[in-house]
Amino acid sequence: ALAFIANPSLVLLDEPTTGLDAAAKRKLWDVIRAARDAGLTIILTSHR
């Protein structure tokens, strides 16, 4: 959440869903998609 406060043009996320339950993962992906759709560049790592 802190990464989005300063309205950056790029966000790096390292395994952002690690430790989250299924509902929290869905909400986080919704936030990530909305940020992407708003023009934010997002680079993330995932083992999925």
Automatic annotation (TrEMBL):
Name assigned to this protein: ATPase AAA-type core domain-containing protein
Organism of this sequence: Rotaria magnacalcarata
GO terms under cellular component: membrane
Lineage, uppermost ranks: Eukaryota, Metazoa, Spiralia, Gnathifera, Rotifera
Domain ATPase AAA-type core as annotated: residue spans: 3-47
Superkingdom of origin: Eukaryota
SUPFAM superfamilies reported in the protein's UniProt record: P-loop containing nucleoside triphosphate hydrolases
Keywords on record: Repeat, Transport
Presence of the UniProt keyword Transport in the record: yes
GO MF annotation terms: ABC-type transporter activity; ATP binding; ATP hydrolysis activity; lipid transporter activity
